[in-house]
Recover the amino acids of this structure.
């Protein structure tokens, strides 16, 4: 214990034990001997003392030199600095607490955003050498299509022609329509997202099953025994984590499958897939080039660049298009995308922008905090001048300020991590569900490193700027003024004004972004997307049966009669207003069924291969009424539009306009769908335009009656006076009375689909509004403290002016005008920055432009008014103060 | 101060050597060491007494000298320094090195 207390004494108070240590005694002895010398010669004690001290020279300096010989000296100095830092912080609580709180908020938000970006974008996928995995599809610029799908025979085209690819596999472009009903024993049947894949799929990804075996080529043959690989989560949740599952049978869509493997945890690719089955087991799929619903995924050999693969892939597609003119358009080109980009999609841009915005907020926070700390430093100039006069070097003063900055940074970082934890928890729960791997965001090592980096930046900013101001002071004049306030030097004033300017710029940028997002959201929500009945309930009904496209396995006649029966029963139920079915419900995803089309009056005008494409839907009668898409002309389909009757179609408004422009009446015109000469359909109705792919994407649609089309109507829409849950139960009950093996999934009202579709936008908007408001508060605080500082500096002058009868309004105006001028300049800088970066954010906005003068003007005005109020408030009060009090005090 | 003759500052790096020379005569305290150097130089060398102590601490840290508290002749408690074995050896080495250095520099500086 004695040892400990000595160490403590040494660390915390070397100066206090100075009278007792060896060196002091030794020096005292030496001084005594020197003065004895003089006393012996008859000098007075004072003279002798002075002589001794002169001869010995600077006693304190000697002590310091000796002290620094100690190898632990730096620790000692540091603890001394820290001690003073803590004392300073405690003495100026308000200023430092607010500075630290501001920083904690900034650090917390940016660390939280970084964790999200890290989880979604930076952390590698669960696949080895992910950078050599490419996703391949086609685009057709002439037909205006972004995704042109591949057919099964193209697998061998790619495999045989491109030796640079190590493995190639095929998977569907989207998962709609492939989910399977899994029945395991007596448990309720569940619908599982599943993906048919060609047998090299997992070899492309570089993963293999943890139990059982991978697909091999013999699994993927027409007539092969049906096998499946299940995901880790399906194995755990639906199959009871049975260790002997390999080789056991499960029922998928009522069909027996053998489980051959359980995939490693985390592999749920394509997104959300819970089981995989071999793709090439259907004669209709394997041979037909027209059956396009796939994309390729390939692993390149090491050292082969994406660009080279893109060139090779494009060459293959061009050659195949020439060889099979009946199946492909000549204008189609290969599109090769790295898997990482494909995986994260548009979440990429959004997250980077959010991280950028949070960093802007952090910068605003750092500016505010160093602003606050600088005022503190200026107020402490007497203390600092005294220290300099007593022989402290600039380095020591800086070290003192640095330890204060470090202390603040450490506290802010610790508090910021707490904020970040909370923010991450909140963001994950609140964020749209379509951002992959968002749920994995945590405060991990990377985030901690990021936080440390940010904290170091904070410490630096909070030290260097005040320190720079402090070491530039004139010691003499500071001391001569005896601690009275000095007016800001020109340089300090300039620093302060730069702060104001920078803050105004950052605030304008954040608020412009936020208001544009808010405007886009409003535009999105008020846009007529073509579905008036937002209470209509939609759900997925995969008729289960054998084969790849389960519903097609039923003969069309059976399938249609099943739907007819189901819908009739539902319609007859009391409380149900209407019920219908459709191929792909609205807003299910950005990829849907596209069909190329040609009007009869256009025949021959266009090359067969450059026909335009548009959204294709198969619907039952009553669909339009159920979802509330108005029929503008003509009639709805009826049960009489059947196999035997004349083929008919309904087109949407924008297509009808094209017909009218060409000088024809839409009703009664004829349209041909698809590349093959299947024959003509008569247009019997025109519907309003509706947005099927995304609420921000307008397009045109072609509808055909379910009795005349091959693709199945996989989604039910039902509307009634009952609650959503009751309607879903009703459908389930009706369904099981028809066929107990069928089940529904994905129950959602149209309103919920719209909500989900705009969720990401809403998320961005609220987050940015929050950032913007924080930045505005910080900016207002900055202006307020600048004006308060100015007033404190010029208290005397103001008092004299008031005493001489200056008008209060004029005085207040005089005080704020300079600062507000800099706010204006800062706003101009912010507006220019928004202008410069407008194109990067363009995809975020809908119906709003970053260069909208109204938005820019309003935001600038808002920031200006906030600054004005923040500045005028202290100025107005100061201008009204009784001048006598202030003059008497000085 | 004397004032008749210009006093000379101690040459950089020679203080240690002179301290060890002083201690070759036997244990001494800081004041005695300073006095020894001043007297041996006929008061020409200007010793800043305070600067002895960092030098003494350095020598102590290198274990060339050791120190103990004793009562001085003036009946005061003082810290007495003495050469260690290594210190005695080092003192001889430094002395001969210094002699060589002086000879060499003298040769360089002789009138051309």
């Amino acid at each position: 214990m004695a040892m400990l207390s000595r160490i403590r004494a040494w660390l915390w108070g070397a100066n206090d034990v100075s009278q007792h240590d060896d060196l002091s005694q030794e020096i005292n002895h030496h001084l005594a001997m020197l003065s004895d010398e003089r006393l012996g010669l008859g000098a007075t004690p004072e003279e002798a003392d002075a002589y001794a001290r002169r001869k010995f020279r600077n006693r304190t300096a000697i002590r310091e030199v000796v002290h620094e010989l100690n190898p632990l000296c730096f620790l000692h100095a540091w603890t001394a600095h820290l001690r003073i830092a803590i004392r300073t912080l405690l003495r100026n609580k308000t200023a430092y607490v607010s500075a630290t709180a501001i920083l904690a908020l900034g650090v917390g938000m940016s660390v939280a955003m970084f964790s999200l970006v890290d989880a979604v974008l930076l952390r590698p996928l669960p696949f080895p050498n992910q950078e050599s995995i490419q996703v391949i599809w086609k685009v057709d610029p002439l037909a205006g299509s972004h995704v042109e799908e591949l057919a099964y025979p193209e697998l061998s085209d790619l495999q045989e022609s491109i030796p640079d690819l190590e493995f190639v596999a095929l998977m569907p472009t989207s998962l709609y329509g492939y989910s399977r009903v899994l029945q395991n024993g007596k448990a309720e049947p569940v619908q599982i997202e599943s993906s048919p894949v060609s047998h090299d799929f997992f070899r492309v990804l570089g993963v293999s099953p943890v139990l059982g075996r991978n697909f091999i080529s013999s699994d993927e043959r027409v007539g092969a025994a049906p096998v499946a690989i299940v995901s880790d989560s399906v194995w755990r949740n639906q199959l009871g984590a049975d260790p002997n599952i390999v080789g056991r049978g499960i029922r998928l869509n009522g069909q027996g499958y053998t489980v051959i493997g359980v995939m490693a945890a985390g592999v749920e690719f394509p997104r959300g897939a819970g089981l995989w089955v071999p793709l090439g087991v259907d004669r209709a799929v394997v041979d037909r080039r027209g059956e396009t619903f796939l994309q390729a995924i390939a692993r390149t050999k090491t050292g082969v660049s994406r660009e080279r693969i893109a060139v090779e892939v494009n060459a293959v597609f061009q050659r195949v298009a020439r060889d099979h003119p009946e199946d492909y358009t000549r204008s189609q080109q290969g599109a090769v995308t790295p898997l990482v980009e494909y995986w994260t999609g548009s979440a990429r841009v959004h997250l980077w922008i959010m991280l950028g915005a949070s960093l802007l907020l952090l910068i605003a926070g750092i500016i505010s905090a160093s602003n606050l700390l600088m005022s503190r430093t200026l107020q402490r100039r007497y203390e600092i001048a005294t220290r300099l006069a007593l022989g402290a070097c600039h380095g020591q003063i800086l070290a003192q300020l640095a330890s204060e900055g470090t202390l603040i940074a450490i506290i802010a970082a610790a508090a910021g991590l707490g904020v970040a934890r909370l923010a991450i928890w909140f963001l994950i729960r609140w964020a749209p569900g379509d951002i992959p791997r968002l749920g994995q965001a945590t405060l991990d090592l990377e985030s901690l490193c990021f936080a440390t980096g940010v904290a170091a930046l904070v410490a630096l900013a909070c030290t260097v700027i005040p320190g720079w101001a402090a070491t530039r002071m004139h010691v003499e004049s500071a001391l001569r003024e005896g601690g009275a306030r000095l007016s800001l030097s020109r340089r300090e004033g300039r620093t302060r004004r730069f702060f104001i300017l920078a803050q105004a710029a950052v605030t304008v940028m954040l608020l412009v972004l936020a208001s544009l997002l808010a405007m886009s959201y409003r535009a999105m929500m008020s846009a007529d997307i073509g579905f008036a009945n937002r209470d209509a309930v939609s759900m997925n009904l995969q008729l289960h049966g054998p084969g790849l496209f389960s519903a097609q396995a039923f003969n069309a006649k059976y399938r249609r009669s099943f739907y007819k029966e189901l819908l009739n029963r539902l319609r007859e139920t009391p409380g149900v207003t209407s019920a219908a079915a459709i191929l792909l419900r609205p807003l299910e995803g950005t990829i849907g069924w596209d069909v190329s089309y040609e009007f009869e009056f256009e025949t021959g005008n266009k090359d067969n291969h450059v026909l335009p494409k548009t959204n294709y839907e198969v619907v039952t009668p009553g669909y339009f009424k159920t979802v509330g898409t108005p029929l503008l002309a003509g009639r709805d389909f009826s049960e009489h539009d059947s196999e035997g009757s004349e083929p008919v179609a309904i087109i949407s408004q924008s297509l009808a306009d094209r017909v009218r422009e060409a000088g024809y009446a839409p009703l009664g015109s004829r349209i041909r769908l698809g590349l093959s000469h299947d024959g003509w359909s008569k247009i019997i109705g025109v519907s309003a335009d509706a947005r099927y792919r995304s609420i921000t994407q307008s397009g045109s649609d072609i509808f055909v009656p379910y009795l005349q089309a091959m693709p199945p109507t996989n989604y039910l829409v039902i509307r009634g006076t009952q609650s959503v849950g009751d309607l879903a139960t009703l459908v389930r009950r009706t369904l099981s009375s028809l066929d107990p093996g069928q089940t529904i999934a994905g129950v959602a009202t149209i309103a919920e689909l719209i909500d989900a579709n705009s969720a990401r936008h809403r998320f961005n908007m609220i987050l940015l509004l929050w950032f913007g408001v924080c930045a505005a508060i910080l900016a207002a605080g900055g202006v307020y403290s600048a004006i308060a500082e100015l007033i404190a500096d010029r208290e005397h002058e103001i008092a004299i002016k008031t005493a001489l009868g200056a008008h209060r309004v004029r005085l207040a105006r005089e005080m704020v005008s300079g600062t507000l001028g800099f706010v204006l300049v800062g706003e101009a800088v912010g507006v220019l920055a928004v202008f410069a970066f407008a194109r990067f954010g363009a995809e975020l906005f809908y119906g709003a432009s970053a260069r909208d003068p109204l938005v820019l003007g309003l935001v600038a005005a808002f920031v200006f008014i906030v600054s004005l109020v923040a500045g005028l408030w202290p100025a107005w009060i100061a201008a009204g103060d009784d001048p006598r009090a202030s003059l008497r005090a000085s | 101060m004397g004032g008749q003759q210009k006093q000379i500052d101690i040459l950089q790096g020679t203080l240690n050597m002179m301290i060890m020379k002083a201690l070759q005569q036997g244990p001494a305290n800081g004041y005695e060491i300073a006095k020894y150097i001043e007297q041996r130089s006929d008061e020409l060398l200007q010793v800043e007494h305070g600067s002895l102590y960092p030098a003494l601490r350095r020598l102590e840290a290198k274990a060339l000298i050791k120190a103990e508290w004793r009562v001085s002749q003036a009946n005061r408690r003082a810290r007495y320094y003495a050469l260690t074995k290594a210190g005695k050896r080092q003192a001889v080495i430094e002395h001969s090195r210094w002699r060589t250095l002086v000879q060499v520099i003298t040769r360089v500086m002789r009138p051309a």
